[in-house]
Amino acid sequence: MRFIKQIVSFVFFTITVFSCNQNTTNKQTKNSETKPNIVFIFADDWGWGDLSAHGHPYVKTPNIDRLIDEGTDFQRFTVASGVCSPSRVGVMTGQFPARHNIDGHFAWANSNAKRNMPDWLDNKTTLLPRLLQESGYATAHFGKWHLSNNMIPDSPTPDNYGYDTYGAFNCSGEQMPFYKDADNAIDFIEKSNEENKPFFINLWVHEPHTPHHVVPKYQQRFPELDEADNIYASVLSHADDRIGEVLNAIDRLNLTDNTLVIFSSDNGPARSVKTAKELELYLDTATGVGYKTGASKGITGGRKGYKAALFEGGIGVPFIARWPGKIKAGAIDDSSLISAVDLLPTFCEIAEAKLPEHYKPDGISQVSTLLGTPYPIRTKPLFWKIGAHWPANKNAPNHWVSYAIVDNHWKLVANKDLSYVELYNIAADVYEKTDLKDQNTNVTEHLKTQIIEWQKTLPVKPDEKLFSKERT
Questions:
Q1: CATH, domain range 36-380
Q2: Distance between CA atoms of residues 197 and 31, nearest Å
Q3: Would the pTM count as exceeding 0.90?
Q4: 3-class DSSP string for 346-357
Q5: DSSP 279-295
Q6: In CATH terms, is domain 384-456 a member of 3.30.1120.10?
Q7: Residue 427 to residue 444: CA distance in whole angstroms
Q8: pLDDT tier at 33, thresholds 50, 70, 90
Q9: Does the N-terminal or the C-terminal CB of the chain have fewer CB atoms within 10 Å?
Q10: What is the residue extent of each domain of the chain?
Q11: CA atoms in the 13 A half-sphere facing the CB of 159
Q12: What is the pLDDT of residue 395?
């Protein structure tokens, strides 16, 4: 009898072990068959030169540098605007933000009204997260929002835009502490992995936007720097550490080979235009107390202009993509012109998500470019529109451009009424040093005409359904 019990116990143990091993094998097989995961890290005011891998004299970014070592550094990427909100609209919609009457940052309702803007991005338009959600992806947003503002209490929250879950600030409702972005992203990755679902995460980090929130741990890493430089280096180091935590979680869960990770920024770095650059504190209602732009020490890698400019210093930002086995490791692509409006069609192709028949993207899929094949020739130009002062302010001499167009290798910048323009061969002159309009009058007039024709396609005013009750 005792012998029979031993046999029964052995058989039960064998079946249990086989079942566990089979479950593990099945789970690994499911993970390998899952659509690629996508993590899009979008920093705020992070300049092209604000990476140690891009030659910054004192900023240290080992985790982002790791992405460069394991992926490709695309050095000709441009965002859809020189400021935050319209730049993010370009990512979310795959369209130029001017098509949505969004040319500046979302602020108070009356400020939006004065600038002929809505109070939030239409959550019923075609949106990247919703397309991926409908294609079977678990979708999440963690970090800055600013497709409305916390000052617009009746604006839709991010979960109305195609996200399964979110934690955000600069939005209506509860404000997530900015430093919780990585923790929330890791929790979401673990949950999606457990459910064997592909995931898409917009991880939109706060740094190095003002206010600069300093943490002694990170300041102690740069004891040799003066106070302003120390503040700037420490906030970037804090962000780089959180990005590293997310990368480590992806590695720990064996998801690295099936996950596309991209790091970029919404626009170029902010710089104080004041003669005196004192370190002042102020209270931001979304993220708390921190330092003003006196501690904004970002650099553009020699590109002209800064945040809010349509020269390359304002719209040319880092773009690093890692996807092991698919995107070449340790490579630099300094010729492929990629735009933020390309991200929606690119991510949708990767995710096998269908674009609606009525949808008209301004971007093109750049999957072949990411994978290292010859870059596609753009069949349609890129356009920019922003509010700018003319004549140029002497404290911001490169911030007078209201319109810009890139067509093939030509870039034309123009003031508000197109009475003054400059022309650059942007493929050969990324620093925009040589104005070629006098030598290429036919090209100049053609590009001006294209801007005029594009202007005719833009809405005259925003839809009143996107107006807050706060408007007076």
A1: 3.40.720.10
A2: 8
A3: yes
A4: HHHHHHCCCCCC
A5: --EEEETTTEEEE-GGG
A6: yes
A7: 16
A8: low
A9: N
A10: 36-380, 384-456
A11: 6
A12: 86
